[in-house]
Amino acid sequence: MVTPPSQVEKSSAAKGEQPHWQGHRERLRARFDSAGADGLADYELLELLLYRFIPRRDTKPIAKALLTRFGSISAMLGADGQELKRVSGVGQSAARDIKAMGALLKRSLSEDIKNEEPILSSWSSVMDYIKASLAHENVEQFRVLFLDKKNRRIKDETLQSGTVDHTPVYPREVVRRALELGATALILVHNHPSGDPTPSKADIEMTKMIAQAAGAMGIVVHDHIIIGKDGHASMKALGLF
Fold first, then answer.
1. When comparing pLDDT for 106 and 47, which is higher?
2. What is the pLDDT of residue 75?
């Protein structure tokens, strides 16, 4: 669906006039060409991209409305398509393109976790990837990064997905999948849709059960990271297992 032009824009087109925002677009493009991304505010960078998605509208107010509604670029890129379409000026096509941008970001961050390098030596990249993937999900997910004996990533999988605040996790399923993949170490990850990453009693008990079951098979659990909109928590750093 293409977002229709406003009445002002229709009037300008009927008179053969250039829309008032056309000159602004050219100036913004020129600033980006000369100064790069550092020369533009967040809403201006988003506006620049929205030109492609919404070619016949003034995208400045749309960009500002998106950032106001979601609070950040990362939250916007992680938003559900229906939520995006609640912003005035964002139709089905624009929402799809924004979701595609988010998917590209996640894949780019995933590529930063080099399979040929020990994952623990690129921890900041791991955290960036995990946050982009889970911080703004509305349903709780439990994921596992399966590692080989050199701590290189074998696979990253979502093993369970639940309701808004509950995901059933079965230790035997985690260990069974690790054995299938030949993994010797694990990093557990799940999100708290509430936004607060503080580990619950259930989180702690479940982690201990997985670590015990995995340990019996010679598999190490390096950490359990909990992600929320308000940050993240490392259960290993907190000494919880």
1. 47
2. 85
